[in-house]
């Protein structure tokens, strides 16, 4: 008996199978087996301990399903005579949701779960596994111990430098923490399903004619001419009455709905260093300068102390630079020093600099200096940050009793005021995107003031000065907008009508567009494939399939955009170069075969569903 058979025989009587059995049907807890095997294939030898941790909770879940207040389980799904209860599905669905959350991590949201239609996918997975499980049994698909062992041995965890490592394999087999019975039977079941799938998919065929048709479909080009009937060109011919405006407003009210709006007052206390912080940094700079003047090597001091990450590793070397290349405070001192001289600490917007001039060249305006520097950035100290935070806290407290603007002015601060903006946009006028503020806003009513809000660069105090709920403005508030939209709508209707006339005339009289009287300029487009869009008419991007349905000389349309009507005439279809067929045949055939194999398998499955009387209690499903 080989290794797999020995492990399986030894373990079978000692351990209960942790595979879910519902009536005569064996479930593999959805795609857990596939997930585990994929995990095995993707990870290192540590997968062996990790797998046992994953398997047990997933399968034990099925054995501990609560009855939800009822001793009799309710049937949610019937597949022929097979029944799956509400409780069993609810437990399975919960395990799917947990894996979904786990996989997405911090990206998870209930909205994403809903967008993936997770419940329906879980139900479909159960149905699919049930039906395919029956097929595996009906067709008596068998997987030998040797096949299972060969598959397991192909796992990269058992390879060292690309060669199978018997020692690693044997160590895993003898590891008492690994439930090999479960792993072996999981893999056997997986392989049985793979054999069924391969057997079904192998029926797929692709003919030479189909490959040629697909080649033509991909690379055939359309050569068109078109005209654009712009609404703006017709707007002046349109009369718009008060009744027209009122009617348009009534039919398009929802388009004018305004989202909830908010106005803010806010005070920003930037995390900037105080004069005391500058003084402390200057004192440090002076102590470094003393060392340099006492004989310490300047370049070594720069490497050790400079905050200029671009030059510190080079001993602070800035190379040669002329006038106008540095900030003024730095430049003035650098150009006043002689070679070998060092400056006192120089304050600039970047902090304090100690400058040493190495050499100079040129004269007058052409003079250049080669210098090194040690930069000490001035950062706000803990005391400064605490002082700023306390000031913000006092302001927040004072603003509870008055407006933020008034409270700020009393302590010689200025408050900024935003215009109305959409709260959920995440974009605050004057500030941009500040997630820390956006997160607080939903909890503030009109007139409410926030606590201190801290970001990486500042402390904020925010007051909501006004809120407007979602609403549709009265016609009188937006009459000019509605009138303009009404005019555009009527002009587009005229463009559509004229477009219909042009298409009818072109097709009934067999005329080219340019031979029809009183039409706008006829334009040409570069030939394009079914996957392309004529760059000269991007508004036709959604109409490419319709264009390829035309016969040569046939006109179609009008195709409407937001501001125009397009009429298209197919001049010719350009066949692809036959010489390209040989080069592209193999890839086209491979793709078609892959699609055909997938479709054959899906058709087979749908046929199983159709003939096995699958019934779902939709009401119970909603409650799951």
Automatic annotation (TrEMBL):
Residues 259-359, 366-466 form the PpiC domain. InterPro entries: PPIase_dom_sf, PPIase_PpiC, PPIase_PpiC_CS, PpiD_chaperone, Trigger_fact/SurA_dom_sf. Pfam families: Rotamase_2 (PF13145), Rotamase_3 (PF13616), SurA_N_3 (PF13624). Keywords: Cell inner membrane, Cell membrane, Chaperone, Isomerase, Membrane, Rotamase, Transmembrane, Transmembrane helix. GO terms for molecular function: peptidyl-prolyl cis-trans isomerase activity. GO terms for cellular component: plasma membrane. It comes from the Bacteria. The chain crosses the membrane at residues 47-65. It is found in: Cell inner membrane. Its main location: membrane. It is a single-pass type II membrane protein. Belongs to the PpiD chaperone family. This is Periplasmic chaperone PpiD.
């Amino acid at each position: 008996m080989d290794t797999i058979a020995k492990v399986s025989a030894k373990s079978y009587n000692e351990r209960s199978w942790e595979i879910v059995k519902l009536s005569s049907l064996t479930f593999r807890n959805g795609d857990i087996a596939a997930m585990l095997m994929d995990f095995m294939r993707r990870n290192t030898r540590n997968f062996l301990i990790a797998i046992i941790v994953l398997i047990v909770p997933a399968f034990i879940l099925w054995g501990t399903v609560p009855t939800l207040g009822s001793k009799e389980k309710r049937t949610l799904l019937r597949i022929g005579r097979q029944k799956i209860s509400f409780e069993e599905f609810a437990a399975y669905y919960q395990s799917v949701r947990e894996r979904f959350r786990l996989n997405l991590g911090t990206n998870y949201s209930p909205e994403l779960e809903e967008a993936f239609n997770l419940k329906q996918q879980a139900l479909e997975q159960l149905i699919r596994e049930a039906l395919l499980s029956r097929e595996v049994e009906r067709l008596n698909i068998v997987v030998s111990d040797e096949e299972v062992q060969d598959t397991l041995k192909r796992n990269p965890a058992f390879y060292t430098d690309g060669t199978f490592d018997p020692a690693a394999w044997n160590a895993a087999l003898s590891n008492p923490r690994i439930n090999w019975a479960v792993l072996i039977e999981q893999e056997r079941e997986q392989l049985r399903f793979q054999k069924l799938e391969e057997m079904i998919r192998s029926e797929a065929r692709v003919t030479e004619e189909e490959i040629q048709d697909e080649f033509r479909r991909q690379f055939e080009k359309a050569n068109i001419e078109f005209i654009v009937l712009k609404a703006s060109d017709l707007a002046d011919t349109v009369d718009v009455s008060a009744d027209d405006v009122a009617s348009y407003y009534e039919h398009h009210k929802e388009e004018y709905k305004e989202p909830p709006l908010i106005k803010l007052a806010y005070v920003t206390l930037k995390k900037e260093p105080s004069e005391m912080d500058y003084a402390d940094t200057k004192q440090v700079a002076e102590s470094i300068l003393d060392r340099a003047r006492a004989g310490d090597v300047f370049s070594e001091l720069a490497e050790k102390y400079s905050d200029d990450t671009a030059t510190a590793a080079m001993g602070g070397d800035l190379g040669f630079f002329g006038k106008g290349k540095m900030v003024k405070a730095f430049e003035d001192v650098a150009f006043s020093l002689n070679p070998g001289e060092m400056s006192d600490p120089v304050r600039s917007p970047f902090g304090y600099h100690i400058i040493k001039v190495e050499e100079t060249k040129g004269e007058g305006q052409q003079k250049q200096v080669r210098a090194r520097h040690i930069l000490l950035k001035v950062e706000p100290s803990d005391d400064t940050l605490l002082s700023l935070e306390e000031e913000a806290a006092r302001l927040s407290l004072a603003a509870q009793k008055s407006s933020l603007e008034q409270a700020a002015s009393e302590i010689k601060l200025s408050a900024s005021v935003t215009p109305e903006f959409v709260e959920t946009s995440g974009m605050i006028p004057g500030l941009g995107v500040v997630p820390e503020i956006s997160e607080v806003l939903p909890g503030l009513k009109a007139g409410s003031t926030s606590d201190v809000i801290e970001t990486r660069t500042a402390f904020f105090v925010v007051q909501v000065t006004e809120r407007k709920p979602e609403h549709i403005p009265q016609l009188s508030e937006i009459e000019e907008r509605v009138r303009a939209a009404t005019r555009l709508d009527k002009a587009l209707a005229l463009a559509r009508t004229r477009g219909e006339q042009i298409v009818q005339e072109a097709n009934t009289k067999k005329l080219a567009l340019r031979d029809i009287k009183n039409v706008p300029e006829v334009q040409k487009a570069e030939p394009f494939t079914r996957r392309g869009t004529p760059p000269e008419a991007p508004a036709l991007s959604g109409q490419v399939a319709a264009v390829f349905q035309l016969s040569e000389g046939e006109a179609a349309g009008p195709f409407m955009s937001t501001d125009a009507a397009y009429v298209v005439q197919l001049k010719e279809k350009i066949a692809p170069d036959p010489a390209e067929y040989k080069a592209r045949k193999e890839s086209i055939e491979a793709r078609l075969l892959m699609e055909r194999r997938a479709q054959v398998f899906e058709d087979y499955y749908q046929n199983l569903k159709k003939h096995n009387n699958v019934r779902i209690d939709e009401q119970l499903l909603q409650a799951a």
